[in-house]
Amino acid sequence: MSHVKMGLFVVNFAICLAVAGFVGYANARPPVFAKQPIPVEIVEIIDGSSFHGHAPFGLDFLTYLTISHWDFYGIHRQGHMIVAAEIGEEVLEIFEEIWEARFPVAQMQLIDFYGALDYYSMAANNSVAFNFRTIAGTNVLSRHAFGMAIDINPIQNPYIRGATIWPAAGAAYLDRSHVRPGMIVRGDVVYTAFISRGWIWGGNWQSPRDYHHFERR
């Protein structure tokens, strides 16, 4: 083996060790499932974005969650959601069950990092909760507007109304009998964690079918 090839081998091996060490460290961290009043720095992000003056409630109606989840590479991540304070503990229990089953969640960032626009958040396969908005195509407030709805892995679990598929990449997951990582199907750990606590799944609706959507009434 030439000195150049040997040098490249050593460098590549070192990189692999470093990556493996990082993954090992990341996965060794204890999971976190915590709630708190919305921090000041987060208020500055959501004010005028996902939260604004039209809301018939104040920020104390909501709670800020830190949630551990596994991503699609099996790496331990920490995400965040904002939900109604009254269901904060319940949502943490749900995601702890999802964590224990190692169900993958692509990412979990506040929708404000996507301009508070579902279109961009779904295209990024982002899982979200609170967003003070109406139901698409109507003047009716969504359950998201009250922090009482959660969307998980929109690409693997698309919204379908007639020929409309959101996000577009979700077209690859229309065959719900071919279950792949991140998909939610009736009877699985995600479905059971929500439904057993009285939540409604959009995947049970006739039209639209909203496979990524759960809401609390």
Structural class: alpha+beta
Provide the gyration radius in Å: 19 Å
As residue ranges, the low-confidence spans are: 1-23
The beta-strand count equals: 9
Largest sheet, described in full?
3 strands, antiparallel
Shape: globular
Distance between the termini: 67 Å
What's the helical proportion of residues?
A: 25-40%
SSE ordering: HEHEEHHEEEHEEE
- The average pLDDT is 90
Side-by-side strand order of the widest sheet: 1-2-3
How many DSSP H or I helices?
A: 5
Q: Give the percentage of residues in beta strands.
A: 15-25%
Structure description:
- The chain has 217 residues and is an alpha+beta fold.
- The protein is built from five helices and nine strands, in the order αβαββααβββαβββ.
- The protein has helices spanning 3-28, 40-46, 88-100, 118-123, 189-195; strands spanning 33-36, 62-70, 76-84, 149-151, 159-161, 164-166, 200-201, 209-210, 213-215.
- A hairpin with a 2-residue loop joins β5 and β6 (164-166).
- The longest helix is centred in the N-terminal third of the chain and has 26 residues, at 3-28.
Question: TL;DR?
Answer:
With 217 residues, the chain is α+β, with helices and mostly antiparallel strands. Helices cover 27% and strands 18% of the residues.
List the helices and strands and how they pair.
Elements: H1 3-28, E1 33-36, H2 40-46, E2 62-70, E3 76-84, H3 88-100, H4 118-123, E4 149-151, E5 159-161, E6 164-166, H5 189-195, E7 200-201, E8 209-210, E9 213-215
Antiparallel strand pairs: 1-2, 2-3, 4-9, 5-6, 5-8, 7-9
Helix pairs in contact: 3-5
Q: Which features does this protein show?
A:
single chain, 217 residues, alpha+beta, 3-stranded antiparallel sheet, 5 helices, 18% strand, globular, disordered N terminus
